Sequence to fold (480 residues):
Amino acid sequence: MSGSRYDRLSALDAMFLEIEGPNTPMHLGSVGIFEAGPLRGAGDPEGTIDFARIVALAEARLHRNPRFRQKLATIPAFDRPVWIDDDTFNTVYHLRHASLPHPGGVRQLKRLVGRVLSQQLDRGKPLWEVWFIEGLEGDRFAVLSKIHHCIADGVSSGDLMSMLMGANPDFVPDPHVPAWIPRPAPGDARMVLDELTRRAVAPLSLLRRPGEAPSGGDAASATGSTLDQAREVVRGAFQAAEKSLNPATPTPLNVDLGPHRRFDWTHMELSEVKAVGRAAGGTVNDVALSVVTTAVRSFLERRAGGTRGVEFRAAVPVNMRTRADAGRLGNRAAGMTVELPVAEPDPWRRLERIVAETRELKGSGESVLVDLIGRVADFLPSGVMAGLSRFGSQSTVNMVVTNVPGPQLPLYLLGARMLEAYPVVPLMPRQALGVALFGYDGGLFWGFNADWEALPDLHEIVLDVDAGFSELCKAAAAER
Fold:
């Protein structure tokens, strides 16, 4: 049909649709805490936040990314999902207004967040929601965003909230916004023909790294680049095979999941985390993994009787974006599998071991291999990536720990400053805990997403994280 348009999901994007189920909703997002005053209704400083202004802002900014007005369809015969424009799109459906009961404590907010995170997004509509939750004590309100993992990863998911926020507290949206006219969906015949054509020519792209120009440049250097990539892939394949033959130890964190979620959080000063990392010759991510190791060690001592003989592994997503990918939605992350030394009794030694391992992994081909598998899977039957992911989540790793750098300056929603920002990572099959970190405005904010039934003691893990970091700060001072 003339003027029709659709966008195909990559195999990695589609994987998060395949592995989603009633007990494994695959959305990520964040919980932001804002000062409420600037968004009170005009002339009513004690009233509710001005939700109408927020809706107007969203409608003025949605045109920046068409994906937020698109829904899923399927290519016949190939069972491949695609994006088409939603001709019944309604902004207000995706922006939800709620309120906490009095007294509006943080614990009440965490309970509500867990309840909302338990609910799958409606696949018949664009796969995102933003909840504006007022009534939080201290003249604050919260913003809970949900976006399906098939649209974005941890890095690109920020595009949803950047639609509403910016660094200018006095920002006023442009009232002259172009009208949105949904493009008609393509016919089945066209999509099938496009898919056949794509499969005939696309394998040539596997000879290039993602983001690499398709032609031009020195042939010798291009050949060298291909050989280097081949060596990295072979090395990564051997490492992946070794880990798959030596699976991670099942723990009380690795059980069948239920349909309900708990959410909790904590935060640290980013400068203090960086100082600890420098003292060990490592990074913020190394410190975070070490603190998680300490918390898991304490958890296993309480729930499993100790850590002797336990091989505990964390999947750590690695951003694979090139300059050509900047500003694009979708998933462009591969994973490192990091052995967390939970049996090591000395906290500083735990950090040193993690620094050494992540340094070695960064020089290995593991992440390159995972990225290549994702690209190859685009030409294989649907579900290949989902099968690999299920195998990995149930045998080779125990949990996901992800860290996304954020802006180190305050952001505002129509003048209301965001004070805190806690990220959400979805739970993979048989992983009852996922930990996400977000650096923002001088802080490092931790979000803990957990299965309700498996982790009634989630807050003890959060307290163990705080205690573990304090322990490392003392050890770093001694080292200096």
